[in-house]
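Q: Two folds, back to back.
A: First:
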Amino acid sequence: MATRVIEEQKLFLNGDEIHVLLSGPPDGRAVILLHGMKFQASAWRKLGTLEFLAVRGFRAVAVDLPGFGKSPVGHTPPPEVMRGVIGHFRLERPVLLGPSMGGRVALEFCLSDPGLLGAMVLVGAVGVNENRNRLGEIGIPVLAIWGEADQISPVANGRILSAEITDCRLLVIPGAPHPCYLEHGELFNREVADFSGGLS
């Protein structure tokens, strides 16, 4: 597959159809991209993140969670979807990126299946306080990206992550709203690629 080509695929888990977008070399470090409540996998195509990561040599996998985008409503819970995606595409300790609702999915998956991930990027994640008492268990590198003007998940949540997780860097984008990546796509894509590329 050419580096810049974005491929659509479907996989089936427990009878549920899961739609994904793929880009980049199959042997590149994998980055799984989730989405927020009002978004879907195609947002990463529009933002240029899939292409940006592919050009940098990453294997980018954007997932439509059940009931979002092109994935019909199903019965498979998000952690099982994550396990299915990682297993189906044979992704070795991928970076899992989750904004807002997807951040909660990523955070809780990391806590339930710590050995499957290599790192996380949490973007204005919700569910931080609900999982606060377990954040110290996270032993992988984390990049927390927050909009300074986030009204959904205040930047204080990013500071909690930074304080509670041993290897966590917090990047606050001045004046940015909850979906901070939409207004600052170039900065966002670069930070995600630099973070993922700097992992051992």
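A: Second:
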Amino acid sequence: MSEGMTRNGIAAKDTVGTERPPRVHIYSDLFLPEPNNHGAGLVICSQVQAFLDLGFKVEFVFIRKWDKVPPSQGYFKEITCTVVDARDERPPWYARLAYRARWPRKLALHQLYPARNVLLREVRSRIQEDGESIHVFDQVGTANVILDLPKSRMVYSNIEIESELTALRMAAEREITKRKLYGWERRKLRRMSELERKVARSSGLVLCVATEDARRITEEWLAPRAAYLPISIANGDTPVAGRESRIDKVLRLLHIGGISHFPSFTSLEFLFTKVFPLLDADTISRLQFEVVGNTSVDIERTQAIMEMARPYPMVHFSGFVEDIRSAYRRNDLHVVASTHATGLRTRIIESWAFGMPVLSTTKGAVGVEHLSSGGNILIADDPRDFARNLRELIHSPERLDEIAIAARKTYDAYFSRRAVADALRELLNTHFGLRLPPVAAPEGALVDSPQIRP
């Protein structure tokens, strides 16, 4: 390996006027960087890959709050992964009073985020060791510490407007249990909304996965350093879906996402109660429907979905799948029927990368840039239109290939590793005053991904 090159073949030291990238520390209390993960985990993987492609030395710091640690198969061999044990952290009893009174802030935040003090110590020790390093915080659960840190190189990774998603989740729970909003729920939503805005305004850079989120944070939250950063799929270099295993006159549907996760819950609810009842017996007999996603969280919501699916024997709940690519290989169409959503539907980007056509509602595709209904995706909001699309695709399977090819072209142009690394480089140079060189792509590195076989 020549001097000034990283393991990925990306130039780390170039001509006069450029500089070697500093170290970056990425913090999360939810996910380890593993491609076979929840949507927010896919965003983390995309950011890790982009920093690596820019030549950064990456440390991933996982704040462990529970006994169970998320599985990681060590996909990113180039990074250092540190697990910090925060399982025994508990706020003092009087922190609850501070939380209700909103003062003092540090004590109130300790009540909301018990691992906060541990994380602050970890970040401060790294700043002391290297004041030029960049620190990226995954969602408010870790980004709340930015309020007590120097602003210069602190990055808030805003994957979705968490207070809005929490409000939607609470509304769904109230609908199931037929109850009113509790006082503590109202209080939590207010605190989350206030905190999100304060953290965004205190950050050196806010990374958003959707342009609309970036606009709102800039204009409504008055945080001028919010910017859109697309995501790539860490293991999406080669499409895995294709016609080879397609069954004649049978349409195999795929649905991905933890059943209790609110967008997934509303998607399945829409399909089972609005769309499938409109299908005739012959169409139902030609459908296979695989639901991939965790079924062990929020048993009440999971049971509600299972009950809705009872009339449809072609529905199969696979639970968590070790390799998500296997689910893409054995199915023909990804359905995303969410009626409420925030942030970005990362699974649509993943489907495009893997060569899987998508049928979605408008809400289900919220946040995804460069959509072309009828081109790289099918959009249907009315249950009748959704059902009509399913019937037509059974008898016109060539449309699946056409949509998949267009989707992959969109992915290569706007969501590839090269596109994300270029975008991140521009943001870091603009907001942190770096002089990172353009992304170099020697032979075999960051080349255009192969197209789907026609």
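Q: And?
A: The chain has two domains: 23-232+416-432, 251-413.
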